[in-house]
Amino acid sequence: MHESQKTHSCRLEVNLNALIFNLNYYKSKLPKQTKLIVMVKAYSYGSGDVEIAKVLQAQNVDYLGVAYADEGVALREKGISMPIIVMNSNPMDYENLLKYKLEPEIYSLETLRHFIETSAQFSAERQSIHLKLDTGMHRLGFMDEDLPKLLLYLKHAQNVQVASIFSHLAVSDEPAQDEFTHSQIELFNTWSKLIINELNYPVLRHILNSSGIERLPEFAFDMVRLGLGIYGVNVTNSTALKTVNTLKTKILQIKKIKESETIGYCRNGKAGKNTTIAILALGYADGFLRKLGNGAYKVLINGKLCPTIGNISMDMTAIDISQTNAKAGDEVIVFGNQNTVFDLADSLQTITYEVFTNISARVKRVYLWEKE
Fold first, then answer.
1. Which one is catalytic: 41, 248, 298, 364?
2. Is position 242 annotated as part of the catalytic site?
């Protein structure tokens, strides 16, 4: 269903002006010539795919980054023409990557061999690839022992060209672990130089993520990868960014509950005194998880924080509004500027990434844009 056709009262407001502000904040930390990849994987961290991509394309970002080929294909089919890197590509995707002019992350000798073979059958043109080095994160990536064979493959491969070499920092947001971070950067510098020395053309290098851009801009190399930071969330200096995403819903009904009566499944919501509750159009199917029930989280109504009461249902949540004059139809802010996504993540004992990406597809995304 198209966003404009959705009628669910729960909606995620995405402030595009704030998104651009945050983009420029990170740019200000970098040397002017530094290129920029912005990650739009996982539906742009829950913010919506093509709308975010169109803004970034208009802002002349150098690359978009997606996790899987399907995400890149969807962007191409919706008119996004700028370079796109697919971070978790696999040999089953390669024909689609070539068809839609998507550039794969190559992370092993096997994936390199498969891509060389597929691209040779597909086109005589040289295809861009991005080499991932494992410098300590220990997810995808070439290890030290792979480098001799990697160099041999690249030397004889006439149909691929290395557009960039990169690695991923595991703890760039934690000053206490800077020794490990610096060891990763040093290893990356050594390995990437070794590879580039065997190639006869320029190659971009990148290792910094959002927190790395803020804390370690001296290691920007040629390009950086901006992820959750552009969406208004960081762990370094959260006051420097603007809130992009605000999750809102509405009150469906208000009820007076007598002392000792119960609310919701399993009767876990107990009214210790006469209580006024509101039923919200919001449930765990929207990403408001059951762990937030029974007072574990408070939503904002008419400037006042109101706790959940009882278990969260799939499509509805009850909250205690005894201290407000709220009425049916009133707006409810689940997270935004005052009660932030950090608050919700803390209540779930998780990270903001998980909160954003848990927001269901049935929640309508509304894009706010004010011309300056």
1. 41
2. no
How remote is the C-alpha of 56 from its chain's centroid? Answer: 14
Q: If you search the block for the tokens 């190659």, which residue do you land on?
A: 203
Q: Is residue 41 flagged as an active site residue?
A: yes
Question: Within a 10 A sphere around the Cβ of 5, how many other Cβ atoms?
Answer: 7
pTM attached to this predicted model = 0.93
Which of 56, 63, 94 shows the shortest CA–CA distance to 204?
Answer: 63
Catalytic residue, chosen from 68, 100, 153, 265, is 265
Neighbours of 105 (CB within 10 A): 20
- What domains are defined for the chain? 31-232 (3.20.20.10), 245-368 (2.40.37.10)
Q: Which residues contact 24 (CB under 8 A, 6 or more apart)?
A: none
Per residue in 342-372, pLDDT (tens digit) is: 999 999 999 999 999 999 999 999 999 987 6
Task: Name the band, by pLDDT with cuts 50, 70 and 90, for residue 237.
Answer: low
User: Considering all CA atoms of the chain, what is the largest pairwise distance in Å, rounded to the nearest integer?
Assistant: 79
